[in-house]
Design brief:
Growth Hormone, Chain: A; globular
Length: 381
């Protein structure tokens, strides 16, 4: 295999990791009702934690990621993360004790906590700047496609059994084989392994941007189905189709990133925040099919575009050390936002319950998007 073929194989290997990350916790969401019925005697909060538990442990693992990189080589870490992802994910379907299930869900979180910063950090480590933007866009597109595929597979498996739905994590076997065969086994990042002082201070703008972006987006999967069903215009099965279509639009957004950045340059930083703002305004003010489809389109495209923009900008600033410094912090911010979004929305709803504001969650997202537009000026630096 010549050098060009090795680089192409490595790119495919790294991108395969991106298929597994974003939907790590929510991959079995379509089966949650079936799982709830099976564990009907358990506290329903614990059943809900089947979805949220991985996110907590992703954040915890990201906090110690740089230390892991000082001890282990890249290939060893990735293979260990994939083993935890596959074994922890599938084993949860074998157990009838809800607490043991949650332990296996925690192992999935640890696995993704390793895989996620690697899936983006290795791009900045192995590829030159002229290749990074394109690969970051592809990585974002793979994130979204992984969400579509995982949701569809899990939903189909759930019709067989709640246990079968956890087999969706076998997707990780493909990445394991590719990483075992093509990934170099070397230390990544600088010798200090990310111990440099002031890392957060130097990169806080990317961390905050990642949190804001994911919070604004995650309002959509948190409330869209509920808010749209309240209108009573769109049947439930079509609501699901619209949401799946949003993921496909996000896939297109990731693929379009490099072209948009090439033609727009620095103003690219405003595109996704503005699209988020427009999308939620449309959902808020236009009822029925038109509002749901058009609003979902803008939100999906913005989500597919913004994450590669944040990651590629951070990679350019930090360089090869990004894999062990800023990438774990960005990953932490993304999953912390996923975990906190429902809590924030619930808290706001309780605080202003007396006002009885219709589609309150969309209003919160609009305010956050407006703040994000203002904050985008930070990327001028």
């Amino acid at each position: 295999m010549n050098n060009k073929e090795r680089r192409r194989s490595l790119a495919v290997t790294i991108l395969s990791l991106s298929l597994l990350t974003v939907m790590a916790g929510a991959a079995v969401a379509p089966a949650l009702d079936v799982i709830r019925n099976h564990f009907s005697d358990a506290n329903q909060m614990f059943v809900q934690m089947i979805i949220s538990m991985p996110a907590i442990f992703i954040v915890i693992t990201n906090m110690i990621f740089s230390r892991l990189c000082r001890v282990f080589r890249a290939k060893e870490l990735v293979l260990a993360g994939l083993l935890l992802y596959v074994m922890g994910g599938c084993a949860a379907g074998l157990i009838d004790n809800i607490f043991v299930v949650l332990i296996f869900r925690a192992l999935v979180g640890v696995g993704v906590g390793i895989i996620m910063p690697m899936s983006t950090g290795l791009i900045s480590f192995y590829y030159t700047r002229d290749k990074q933007d394109r690969l970051m866009g592809y990585s974002s597109a793979m994130n979204q496609m992984g969400g579509v595929v995982a949701t569809l597979i899990s939903g189909l498996l759930a019709t067989i059994s709640w246990r079968a739905s956890f087999l969706v994590y076998l997707m990780g076997v493909i990445s394991f084989v590719l990483c075992f065969k093509f990934m170099p086994n070397e230390k990544i990042g600088s010798r200090d392994g990310g111990k440099e002082k002031g890392v957060f201070k130097k990169n806080y703008m990317f961390v905050i941007a990642a949190f804001l972006s994911m919070f604004i987006f995650f309002v959509y999967p948190s409330v869209f189905a509920i808010e749209t069903a309240k209108e009573g215009i769109i049947p439930q099965n079509f609501i699901t189709i619209i949401m799946a279509g949003m993921d496909l639009v996000a896939f297109a957004g990731g693929l379009s990133f490099v072209h948009i950045k090439k033609h727009m340059g620095k103003p690219t930083r405003f595109v996704a925040p503005i699209l988020f703002f427009i999308g939620y305004v449309v959902l808020l003010v236009i009822d029925g099919w038109m509002g749901a489809i058009v609003g979902s389109f803008f939100i999906g495209f913005a989500n597919g575009l913004e994450i590669p923009f944040i990651i590629s900008t951070a990679s350019r600033q930090v360089g090869k050390a990004a894999a062990t410094t800023v990438m774990p912090m960005i990953s932490m911010a993304l999953y912390l936002a996923q975990f906190l979004t429902p809590i924030i929305l619930s808290s706001v709803s309780k605080a202003i319950a007396a006002l009885a504001i219709e589609h309150m969650s969309y209003g919160v997202a609009i305010i956050a998007a407006a703040l994000f537009i203002a904050y985008a000026v930070e990327f001028e630096r």
